[in-house]
Write a structure and sequence with these properties.
Aconitase, domain 3, Aconitase, domain 4, about 750 residues, 7-stranded mixed β-barrel, 3 domains, alpha/beta, 24 helices
Length: about 750
Amino acid sequence: MLTQIEIETTPKMVENVYKKSKKNVEKFRNTVKRPLTLTEKILAGHLEDDFLEKILDNKKNYVFLKPDRVALQDVTGQMVMLQFMLADLKSVSLPTTVHCDHLIQARTEGKSDTKLAIYENNEVYKFLESASSKYGAGFWNPGAGIIHQVVLENYAFPGGLMIGTDSHTPNAGGLGMIAVGVGGVDAAETMAGIPWELLYPKRIGVFLKGEMSGWTAPKDVILFVAGKLSVSGGTNSIIEYFGPGVESISCTGKATITNMGAEIGATCSIFPYDKRMETYLNSTNRKEIAQLANENKELLQADSEIEQNPERFFDKVIEIDLSTLEPHVVGPHTPDLARPISKLAEEINSNDYIDKISVALIGSCTNSSYEDMSRSSSVARQAESHGIQAKIPLLVTPGSEQIRSTIERDGQIDTLRSIGATVLANACGPCIGQWHRPELKDGERNTIITSFNRNFPGRNDGKRDTMNFIASPEIVTALALGGSLSFNPLEDSLETKDGKKIKLLPPEISPEVPEKGFEKAEDVYLPPETNSENVKVLIDPNSDRLQKLEPFLPWNGNDFIDFPLIIKAKGKCTTDHISPAGPWLRLRGHLDKLSDNLLLGAENAFNGEVGKSKNFVTGNLENCAQIARTYKEKNLRWVIVGDNNYGEGSSREHAAMTPRFLGCGIVIVKSFARIHETNLKKQGLLALTFDDSNDYEKILENDKISIYNLSNFSPDGIFECELKHDDGTSDKINLKHSYNESQIKWFKAGSALNVLKNKTT
């Protein structure tokens, strides 16, 4: 019988982490001979021993770490389990949980939407439940809540290290944990007990002073930071918050900030342990863990010298005075287009924004805490007392069943309903494109305002003409009452039915945890079977939702010669553009069918078409997936060319797997987003960047692209690339890469999964 791993974050587990961390930090401190940031302490606590004696600053160092746990959601988790099976693995080697949060579509309201999702996705849920039971993972039922909120409530702990197959895994940084979004192969390897590889991150420090008041919320901190750093400014960096202002922010407020660090490309974000985290741990029935954290504070906070002279220890420092920080609104179409709410109205006409808001949405994994809902309820209560209703639909997404049942008990839901709000399921819903909007016509320009985290075109409702602006939940609630983007609750008034003008007061100071404690969620969790050897993983061979994987072929030892270009993507090309979500989420376990969404949202630099390119075999303008299948039938490998920060956004490895499945061999870009670059490498693709970004302009539509000297593939090398143009001329350019020795092995073996499989057979 296989040994079963303890799923829970127990005091014993935490105690062992702290014991090891204490020894490792001492060794690492002796190596670097200087004070340590919190980031360095937690990383050191989880480093493989060999790295504790190395200077890791200012170099491209890949390190191996031993995480404490893994978290999977139902969409990405399907592929993780399928890869786990392909590698012939028998059982997880560290605590792992699966959370069913992505496949519930927002249609009418929470209960009916959840019930319908269970019916429509029963096959997928049964697969995940059986796979979890078979391999020793914990399984959270549909309706239990969003992965990040459930992890915060149950599993996260200060000083821990976790990876998760969702880009917003850093949410757990609000509880002092380094938590990083990764691709599925990373997760499968780690679940198998193989150390996790990471490019040792740079450090960005955010110094907080003062204290928030009035309408300003934790959300405004990260919206301000996003405006400062841009969507790529945090790439390969951990953002560490410090300073006297830190303790003024609740634990869940901190989680909002770390959650959205993904929007600036950060590896993760983190806060030091403090009284606010202790309060949250105690309120969520983890008093023993809080006590252990209190006893080990020196491991869970930066050395005192860091705050005195932060420029010595961080690669970049940003200072924010919370007492003067104004509520911010970001968007549309990108999370780094930030401005104070006082400046928004003047931008509407100059930028052709639609002032009238069609829908307002609050909640999700980013902003559904007890404190968030209480502050939004405070705004709603003022309107209710004057008989004022929301002028537009207001949709509320609780982050978990624990949150939903608690705010139902304490009245916040009733208050929000009193102004016209609809409560949706405890799931991602509109935040990730799982939003049914039949009232919206194709091509209809409209504005929405949300408290979510991501706002790329088509992200929320699949409609590229929807402009999504992001703000705090209390500001969103106020704008739902005002009905327009230009309404500023700090200055403007609402009108009652009898014509009176009233001005909303700032939301009341709200409790970060409920006075009566959280309601216990019932029937939401299934532990794995004790005797898992008798469990059969359920996959119908005729399924159109699930497909067993076949390994990708290894590299044949030849150079890549005369590969055609499938698209030269212009501007922002996120994972939403490469492999869209929305209706495609249901196919995430069937690689062949899912591949039909290849590059559907990418803008072609040659003709401005979205999702379409020239098929050099037929000469026709076709969907990229159709072209790729034509090339695959003719045994032709092909190339994607992209712009800056290619692959930003979600951690979805499908954006690397679908090109690989359809025959992509090379991806050449000006720069990569961190997770996507790793995912491409894991799938055996050649991920390269222009040595001179201006060479992007040399790529022509009919080019044949060759990469030479692959037999001498070595770390930190330069490849010579030849561009053969259809007029008989050619250009030679240099392409860089960031592969290390182990990553080169992935390429040669055909994928990292093939390497893993070879280790286990």
